[in-house]
């Protein structure tokens, strides 16, 4: 027989049962019912907490998905912009090299036709 205070019945609980002419089975059944009710209340409380946590996690996951989607789109946009700028820089470098070649050629022609008068 178990009681609330431990594995052995207390003296006061035994005397109370005897004074009230209660049987041990009634007292044990009441104790079992109390324990079952307490367990059920705790179970319900835990279930509510778990559901609340689950909703919080679901909302957090949804927020993260939205943030990831936005960041992915922004990243794609920036990659495209970077590629465009890299192509423009390559084109400008090529034009600069061509202009350097033409400038050098023009400089050689302009020196060839110059006359120096030494006096």
Automatic annotation (TrEMBL):
Residues 1-15 have a biased composition (Polar residues). Residues 36-102 form a coiled coil. Keywords: Coiled coil. Residues 1-27 are annotated as: Disordered. This is Uncharacterized protein. It comes from Holothuria leucospilota (Black long sea cucumber).
């Amino acid at each position: 027989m178990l009681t609330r205070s431990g594995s052995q019945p207390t003296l006061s609980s035994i005397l109370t049962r005897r004074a009230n002419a209660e049987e041990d089975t009634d007292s044990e059944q009441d104790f079992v019912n109390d324990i079952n009710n307490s367990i059920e209340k705790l179970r319900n409380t835990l279930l509510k907490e778990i559901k609340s946590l689950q909703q919080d996690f679901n909302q957090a996951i949804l927020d993260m998905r939205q943030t990831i989607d936005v960041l992915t789109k922004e990243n794609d946009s920036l990659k495209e912009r970077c590629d465009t700028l890299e192509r423009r820089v390559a084109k400008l470098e090529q034009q600069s090299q061509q202009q350097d070649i033409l400038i050098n050629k023009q400089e050689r022609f302009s020196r060839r036709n110059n006359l120096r008068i030494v006096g």
